[in-house]
């Protein structure tokens, strides 16, 4: 990790800059995939799956028999862990459901909001070596709590090295088990941009949905951005995962190193930032990183990620928090004394982990908070996924005769000043009809 | 208006289709504007303003003197109306601010969410003949309630026919008055895609913002979609404004016609839909439209809009509601008996107006609900603007020793099953340290 001592403020933006990906080439490739699926449906989905995954299952939809088989393959210990995590995630997300009061803004003018579930949502879960069944919980639990009528899942039908051919045409059992446990309506063995296209436009096999959620590689991310431009909602823009840690002299360097490595092991492009007021801690964390890195099965990925990562030595915790708010990290760990107090000063972050005993991995899996969070500085303006992400808040209003009379002058004057006669007339006609009675 | 009697369900999608705009040509033009402003800042803003508005003011920022002058030009009656509307909008939006409880998901595992204002937001208000000062209230009031630190406004410096040269370099007084009243921090005389670019990237004059709100022409809309793809948040995708009315035999045809015309007068591309169970009402509304259309100053626009609009005769109110949910209108007026009951069945709509005395124009200006709403069917997945649009909901968590011990098995098992060793170690190291004590 690069060590930067007492960086002047005017250099923060440059020092905290994330790598910028040039997607212009990718965009035309992904556009072609989207067009193909839009025009030719399942046939195009099959062709792209053959081309990219080198194998396409006969039936795209996962059968009940496959799910039953998968359930038997997941150990009771893992099932129990997944159930516990689900319970905690449900507890945390349930209180996000809220019915607001009716507001009488003027006598006789009643206004309110109501949360109504998005009818059809689509979740995407990547395949590959790390089966992200935890992400299914993070998306399906709030979708169910919101009351979505249809929750479909697309995930590629392989879960180890594609080239080996092992498990070809199969979805990881823990993914199927978790999908079943979380009440996913239908599961399809489709990956990549073609999965996003199928859910956006619908095909003979895959129903179209109103909003698409979930992580993915650059093809998936690009497909989501393109379909968003076409008016289909997505959870949020995506970028590589990130953690920033503030640690003072009270921090345990082994814990800090483990937290940094939990982020680094996600992939070579993961972003890891340590900010500290203690020069000694930097040395200790460096030594611990060295020691722990070699124990990891994903040490090559984690090592690459650390090479691009930075440690900042700053003069005090106020400056540290300014720097961290300026970075707007996805995950922020406050490993310091009086961490609760410092947490009050957080302005830009996806999720905050307070104190020495709150590692990011607790929230990644099981504490109850959502792990689908804004990366790439999007924490300045985006929230993580919650029940809110699966509902629309529709406003309602009802005026009585008194309400219409009370509001009419205001509406008529404003409409006339904006030059919108019919707007004024819609109120005036009603006012006159009431007065005539 | 085209009349369609008893349309079969399989034709609904086709009949309810909105016109699709081909923006491919526009996109390259707008991309060039964005690039220009990103690279050359104010200089490019001035060049584009000269080119499109045919005049660029010497100073881009509106001065205090200009605001004071504007305040004096707005009649006390209009000031009073704007103040009343602001008060109602504040009342309705204030209850959207909410602090959630801390949830103890397992003994010793504490999780909560906190709403934190987006620091810097940018509002865009179009110029032209209808000065949309009401939209300033709809955006600035929730921004202030949310606690945004910086709220800037861009609006072009003309407010009548550009070619006449009248009011050249000036912003409409009611716009400046409303901006001042709503606590906008800074106002800039910039319009079009160059305004969106200036707020997205920042220039020497204009600060960059984290999220951009507001309506605009196709250039503005396209610029917002493009900067969203670059990770700057926007309020929502935009399309032409819409109203759908359900009216039964109890409806007043003059009221219904006035409501349809209030939408139609927005522009030639406004979408107007009437759904009814009463053949007589169709005839009466047609006659009323004819009568009222000629009274409007914007009758040409309204007339064009009506030509593309549709009346549907359906067999009963249940079918009407299915059709309307399938259309997902921005505004939905329920002009029928037992309208409250029917309102319960709404799944897809931006804002709902219940009963014969609740015209859309009440909500457009002053009832208190927000008028920045999802168009183009986006009501299936998007909400209108609210205080939520101006905050991020950051999650926090804090674990005690007991909490860490309670959650550790679950986290370690799930992390191992996902192949993420360091995630497991971050919990294991802490668990072991506690046990050693």
Task: Describe the protein's architecture and organization.
2 copies of one chain form a homodimer. Chain A has 437 residues and is α/β, with parallel strands linked by helices. Helices cover 46% and strands 16% of the residues of chain A. Chain A contains 16 helices and 14 strands. Chain A has helices at 12-15, 24-53, 64-73, 76-94, 133-146, 173-181, 192-201, 218-229, 253-264, 279-293, 299-307, 317-327, 339-343, 360-365, 401-417, 421-436; strands at 2-5, 103-106, 109-117, 120-124, 150-154, 186-188, 211-213, 233-234, 242-247, 271-276, 310-313, 331-335, 351-354, 391-399. In chain A, the strands form 3 sheets. Chain A has a 6-stranded parallel β-sheet with strand order 1-11-10-9-12-13, sandwiched between helices. A 5-stranded parallel β-sheet of chain A has the order 6-5-4-7-8, sandwiched between helices.
* Tertiary shape of chain A: globular
Mean pLDDT of chain A: 94
The biggest sheet of chain A amounts to:
6 strands, parallel
* Largest two-chain interface: A-B, 133 and 133 residues
Helices of chain A, by number, come to: 16
Structural class of chain A: alpha/beta
Beta-strand level of the residues of chain A, as a percent range?
15-25%
Strand order of the largest sheet of chain A: 1-11-10-9-12-13
Radius of gyration of chain A: 26 Å
Spell out the helices and strands of chain A N to C: EHHHHEEEHEHEHEHEEHEHHEHEHEHEHH
Low-confidence stretches of chain A: none
Helix content of chain A: 40-55%
Multimeric organization:
homodimer
* Distance from first to last alpha carbon of chain A: 80 Å
Number of strands of chain A: 14
């Amino acid at each position: 990790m690069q060590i930067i001592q007492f960086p002047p403020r005017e250099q923060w933006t440059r020092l905290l800059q994330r790598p910028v990906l040039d997607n212009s080439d990718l965009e035309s490739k992904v556009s072609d995939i989207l067009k193909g699926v839009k025009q030719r449906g399942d046939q195009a989905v099959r062709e792209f799956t053959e081309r990219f995954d080198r194998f396409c299952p006969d039936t795209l939809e996962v059968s009940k028999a496959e799910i039953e088989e998968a359930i038997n393959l997941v150990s009771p210990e893992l099932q129990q862990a997944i159930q516990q995590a689900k319970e905690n995630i449900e507890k945390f997300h349930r209180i996000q459901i809220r019915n607001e009061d009716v507001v009488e803004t003027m006598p006789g003018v009643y206004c309110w909001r109501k949360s109504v579930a998005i009818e059809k949502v689509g979740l995407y879960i990547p395949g590959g070596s790390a089966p992200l069944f935890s992400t299914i919980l993070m998306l399906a639990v709030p979708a169910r709590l919101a009351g979505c009528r249809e929750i479909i899942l697309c995930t590629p039908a392989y879960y180890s090295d594609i080239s080996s051919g092992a498990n070809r045409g199969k979805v990881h059992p823990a993914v199927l088990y978790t999908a079943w446990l979380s009440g996913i309506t239908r599961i399809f063995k489709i990956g990549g941009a073609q999965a996003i296209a199928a859910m956006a436009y619908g095909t003979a096999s895959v129903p179209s949905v109103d909003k698409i959620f979930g992580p993915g590689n650059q093809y998936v991310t690009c497909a989501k951005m393109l379909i968003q431009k076409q008016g289909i909602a997505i959870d949020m823009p995506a970028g590589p995962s990130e953690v920033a840690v503030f640690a003072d002299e009270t921090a345990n360097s082994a814990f800090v190193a483990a937290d940094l490595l939990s982020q680094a092991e996600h992939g070579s492009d993961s972003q890891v930032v340590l900010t500290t007021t203690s020069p000694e801690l930097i040395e200790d964390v460096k030594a611990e990183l060295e020691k722990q890195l070699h124990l990891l099965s994903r040490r090559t990925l984690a090592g690459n990620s650390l090479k691009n990562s930075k440690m900042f030595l700053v003069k005090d915790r106020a400056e540290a928090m300014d720097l961290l708010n300026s970075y707007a990290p996805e995950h922020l760990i406050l490993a310091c004394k009086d961490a609760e107090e410092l947490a009050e000063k957080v302005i830009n972050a996806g999720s905050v982990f307070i104190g020495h005993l709150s590692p990011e991995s607790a929230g990644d899996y099981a504490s109850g908070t959502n792990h689908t969070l804004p990366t790439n500085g999007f924490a300045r303006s985006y929230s993580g996924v919650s029940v809110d992400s699966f509902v629309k808040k529709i406003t309602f209003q009802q005026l009585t005769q008194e309400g219409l009379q009370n509001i009419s002058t205001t509406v008529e004057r404003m409409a006339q000043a904006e030059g919108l006669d019919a707007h004024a007339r819609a109120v005036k006609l009603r006012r006159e009809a009431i007065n005539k009675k």
